[in-house]
Amino acid sequence: MRKPFVAGNWKMNTDSQGSVELAKAVADGSLGAAGQSVDVAVCPPFVYLKSVAGAVSSSNIAVGAQDMYYEAKGAFTGEISASMLKDIGCTYVLCGHSERRHVIGETDELINKKVAAAIGGGLLPILCVGELQSEREASQTQDVVTRHVKEGLAGLSAEKASAVTIAYEPVWAIGTGLTATPQQAQEVHSFIRELLGRIYDSELAEEIRIQYGGSVKPASAAELMGQTDIDGLLVGGASLKSDDFLAIIQAAL
Ligand code: 13P
Asked: Are strands 62-65 and 5-9 parallel, antiparallel or unpaired?
């Protein structure tokens, strides 16, 4: 039985005071819920990770980073390692978010190195996958998702891969208000689970959690969570409003 997992990706939003206030509001509002029957994480910008980790330390809310670099230390100006994230209280790290793939230009090869280094450093990676609108229109969704999953997990044993959460985030649904219908999302989630079964085995495929992300709102959360292969939600805009994010957590219970 896969435990639901809701994560809020704050992207490049909030400030030092607002990030702590938002984190506290989420921690206070989800008392009892998180940790019992749903895992919850918030992913603030790097510079607020430590203060947010402090603000949620007596709750069951976990903290995740939005990215990391795969090297352990050294001359990599501007980069942040897995051990640094672990050191300040991170549990999770997003790898290969669509904005990093399409705005920053990250490749599957780089993302794979990040996923492996995250696991090696004791973090739980959330590997983000998903097609562009043009790729969906060209019936390439399965090809793109296959490439993102296969190349993202390349070289990882089943044991290591079991540390990964996959987030299916169709790029056309991110920040656009266009949520994939629960049926569209379920179709891709079930495809990803089958693919995991082919890459590894059915036991691992049943174990790995697959989140949906893309314009998730309180009104759409319950129906998405009602789908067989949707195990959680990766929430952008709606995670910046504590009431909305708490309502989404409730919908995942
Ligand atoms: P929105 O919920 O704002 O569409 O963002 C989704 C997302 O990219 C989460 O990682």
From this structure: unpaired
**CB 104: neighbour CB atoms within 10 A?**
10
Distance CA 179, CA 184 (A): 10
C-alpha torsion sign, points 75, 79, 81, 87: positive
DSSP H or E run through 47: none
- In this predicted structure, the answer to whether residue 249 has a pLDDT above a threshold of 70 is yes
The 3-state DSSP class for residue 34 equals: strand
Cβ 56 under 6 angstroms from ligand 1 = no
**Backbone phi and psi for residue 124, each to the nearest 5 degrees, phi listed first:** -105, 110
Task: Find out whether the beta carbon of 44 lies less than 6 Å from any atom of ligand 1.
Answer: no
- What is the C-alpha to C-alpha distance for residues 238 and 217, in angstroms, rounded to an integer? 6
| Strands 92-95 and 232-235, sheet pairing | unpaired
Would you say the CB of residue 8 lies under 6 angstroms from ligand 1? no
14 neighbors 43 (Cβ within 8 angstroms)? no
Burial class (CB in 10 A: 0-12, 13-18, 19+), 222: middle
Nearest C-alpha to atom 7 of ligand 1 is from which residue?
236
Q: pTM of the predicted model, to two decimals?
A: 0.97
Cα angle 120, 61, 176; round to 5: 90
Distance CA 230, CA 211 (A): 6
- The identity of residue 250, as a single letter, is Q
d(CA 18, CA 22): 6
Q: Where are the alpha helices (DSSP H) in 200-227?
A: 202-207, 218-225
* pLDDT, tens digit (0-9, with 9 covering 90-100), for 116-143: 999 999 999 999 999 999 999 999 999 9
